[in-house]
Amino acid sequence: MKIISDIQELRDHLRGQNRASFVPTMGNLHEGHLSLMRLARQHGDPVVASIFVNRLQFGPNEDFDSYPRTMQADIDKLEKEGVYILFAPTERDLYPQPQEYRVDPPQQLGDILEGEFRPGFFKGVCTVVLKLFSCVQPKVAVFGKKDYQQLMIIRQMAKQFALPVDIIPGETIRAEDGLALSSRNGYLSIEERAEAPELMKALKEVRERVIQLKDRNSHSISEIEKAAVASLAKRGWQPDYIAIRQQSDLAPASNEQLQAGEPLVILTAAKLGKTRLIDNLEI
Ligand code: PAF
């Protein structure tokens, strides 16, 4: 595997390749990331991965400084997966000047859910992803469905800017007890790790209640959301949201849409101690 930090050197290496398959990451790779590398291999060649902890997508009180950086272990994993190039720019490589041009996603998608609780997050994500696309110029790029809203926003960005890249979604990989794999799981204490699968259980319970609602029209969607937030809070979580949304645009779902069989998704973010976890479940 070739490890490259310089944009020009990356372009030189990829010259003439028009089927590259790209997986952008912030490192601290786990089985979820590696499954994206395997998916990338099915959709193009060569596979290019990137590792870059992108300051622009972290808020002032977030974990940019403490975000786990495990470069050597990541390199070993990517080598085993047969990744052809690891693009690992420094901040100076990727942002040689302050990044003043930014990509601002539309409010109705970028300022809801994660965007409401992490202002500017998707602006930072879109800006770095557009820049990484410009460096790698891939034919396809793979993003995990664990970051459901991110995947949707990047898809829309690629569409609206007519970027010549297909966005491929990768399924969420879970531990045996149901916890979605995430680099931030490493922040959990032993007790918190034992409690963490309750987030997925809460999503499954919401899904059951939504399905019952479809059959019996018993509760309203917002009652189900509120009850789920309350029961997580009772267990000691600090939930930011549990939201039942339309899969197509993440707008709030109505009982009518549910009855009409509109595909829905339940999204959640909640803090356990100091660790903020996100997850989702499609209905
Ligand atoms: O999902 C991530 O790891 C990041 O948001 C991404 C897409 C690599 C952009 O920094």
Task: Based on the model shown, name its key terms.
283 residues; alpha/beta; 9 strands; binds pantoate
Summarize the structure in words.
This protein is of the alpha/beta class and 283 residues long. Helices cover 41% and strands 18% of the residues. The protein has 12 helices and 9 strands. The strands form 2 sheets. A 6-stranded parallel sheet has the order 1-4-3-2-5-6, with helices on both faces. A 3-stranded antiparallel sheet has the order 7-8-9. The chain is globular. It starts with a strand and ends with a strand. The model has no long low-confidence stretch (mean pLDDT 96). Pantoate (PAF) binds at residues 24-26, 54, 57, 125, 128-129, 147, 150.
List the helices and strands and how they pair.
Elements: E1 2-4, H1 7-14, E2 21-25, H2 31-43, E3 47-51, H3 71-80, E4 85-87, H4 91-94, H5 107-110, H6 114-117, H7 121-136, E5 140-144, H8 148-160, E6 166-170, H9 190-195, H10 198-216, H11 221-234, E7 238-246, H12 255-259, E8 264-272, E9 275-282
Pantoate is lined by residues 24-26, 54, 57, 125, 128-129, 147, 150.
Radius of gyration: 19 Å
Gap between N and C termini, in Å? 40 Å
Number of helices: 12
Tell me the fraction of residues in β-strands, as a range: 15-25%
Tell the overall outline: globular
Derived structural class: alpha/beta
Which series of helices and strands comes N to C? EHEHEHEHHHHEHEHHHEHEE
Average of pLDDT:
96
For the biggest sheet, the summary is: 6 strands, parallel
Helical residue percent band: 40-55%
Sequence of strands across the biggest β-sheet: 1-4-3-2-5-6
- Strands, total number: 9
Which stretches are poorly predicted, pLDDT < 50 over at least 5 residues? Answer: none
Can you list the ligands bound to this structure? pantoate
